[in-house]
Amino acid sequence: MSTPTAVALEDAKVAFRLGDGRVYTAVEKAHLAVAQGEFVAIVGPTGCGKSTLLNVAAGLLKPAAGSVRIFDRPLAGLNREAGYLFQADALFPWKTALDNVAIGLEIKGTPRADALPQAQKWLTSVGLGAFAGRFPHMLSGGQRKRVALAQVLIRDPKILLMDEPFGPLDAQTRQVMGNLLLDLWNADRKAVLFVTHDLEEAIALADRVVIMSAGPSSRIIGDWRVSLARPRDIFEVRLDKEFHELHREIWSVLKDEVMKGYAQSTQAVEAV
Amino acid sequence: MSRPTLFALQVLVAVVCIVLWQVLSTVPVFGKILLPPFFFSNPLDVFSQIVKWFVSGVIWKHLGITLTESILAFVIGSAGGVLVGFWFARQPLVAAVFDPYVKMVNALPRVVLAPIFALWLGLGIWSKVALGVTLVFFIVFFNVYQGVKEVSRTVLDNGRMLGMSERQLMQHVYWPSALSWMFSSLHTSVGFAVVGAVVGEYLGSAAGLGYLIQQAEGVFDVAGVFAGMFVLSAFVILIDYGVTLVERRLLVWRPTASDGRG
């Protein structure tokens, strides 16, 4: 490949020590490469360790074996090239929307007077220009996600890591947020690693869809290229014939894993 | 219920109580006064005692002393609570080592310390301040400790991913979180600062509201005791109102029960 690889996981294995001393292997031999400017979605059944994999790419978790390379350099500590969009609310509740966005720059040492106008610009570009003075609890779930997006993007990271960012939102808001994300991404095409359990969302957004098997010791079991034309509109792309064929193809593989995942989660409950 | 109606009802309760008190302590019922004046005094005497204090201006000195002691106890106790709370929360080993002693001292009824403080620090304001500090310190300490420990994992990770250093995490995450916990207990800790001051004065002093009440009691001046109690309640309500104002200003970012829809 001619473009440098933004994120490369090589045979990454992630294991946790359980309370009783046993070792739980969440992810086994994960091999995944995200090229610069590429939008990759990871889909898998509940509990398959897709968020775990994302945390490894972020440097929040250390792999038990294998390596993580960011722009061809081994990752030590936190991934400084990456912006991370969390599934849960991660805004600072004691800061206004504007301050929440500005903090991304202030941390880097940008004077507050310079950071604030830029933060206002970013709030406007996520459609919240008029909400700068609101505190997070005064915003709706979708609005909070928009602020979080602006907070991450204002730092201009080269890589975007997203952990089911739109998971807690209702169906319509998710689609609106998906379109917003694609618009913003289109402007400078960062490398994106997007975790979701929603296959439709994955196909609609991504260039590549990666499927993981049910946990424990889950592996990457499939990798599809999505060649739908860009720029896309999430509402319309779902009506596309190619979309349907791809969805059917991937779902035939994913379905078995989803069933396995459910079976395992019920077994786990019985074991307890 | 509309505000004026509510207010009218609240006033009504006071009026009924005071009138009952006045009547039962002055008018014989079946040839017997139900509230003997020696034990219960009567509202008019109590009121005239309060007026006398304020007209002669003698009360201001006592209020000033009690206020000074309360403020000092609150400031010193809070500062200590914040520092130690932070320290323990960030150093789990230290917290684990001191844990039984913290529990032990906190379990001690603080009143028993008053004689020791009087012995060590004399009968001036500092023995009262010390008593207040021992009360305020633990409330603030436990809240700050909790506040630092219970910072949301996600918010913390977010701070890290945004590139915050340990110092910046302290400033932007731990500190505001701990403060919000501390402020949520502001009413309690300010209340205890006053309790410490008044109880200290009551047990041995030469000035303050507690002293005033203790003096009146010493000469069986029940009207004086009640008058002192009323001034003390009014004093605490005023302070509490001040705290509410401060709280509203400092905790604007927090959802209140009324807009908890979030």
What does this structure look like?
By secondary structure, chain A is an alpha/beta fold. Chain A has a domain of 171 residues: Rossmann fold (3-Layer(aba) Sandwich). In chain A, the strands form 2 sheets. Chain A has a 6-stranded mixed beta sheet, sandwiched between helices. The radius of gyration of chain A is 19 Å and the shape is globular. The mean pLDDT of chain A is 88. Chain B has 262 residues and is an all-alpha fold. Chain B folds into 2 domains: 40 residues, no CATH class; 219 residues, MetI-like fold (Orthogonal Bundle). Chain B has 12 helices and no strands. At the A-B interface, strand 6 of A face helix 8 and helix 9 of B.
Q: Residue ranges of chain A: pLDDT <50 for 5 or more in a row?
A: none
Largest sheet of chain B: none
Find the CATH superfamily of the largest domain in chain B.
MetI-like
Shape of chain A: globular
User: Which strand-content bin applies to the residues of chain B?
Assistant: under 5%
Low-confidence stretches of chain B: 258-262
User: Using DSSP, what is the number of strands of chain A?
Assistant: 10
Function (chain A): Involved in beta-(1-->2)glucan export. Transmembrane domains (TMD) form a pore in the inner membrane and the ATP-binding domain (NBD) is responsible for energy generation.
Keywords (chain A): ATP-binding, Glycosyltransferase, Nucleotide-binding, Transferase, Transport
Pfam families (chain A): ABC_tran (PF00005)
Family (chain A): Belongs to the ABC transporter superfamily.
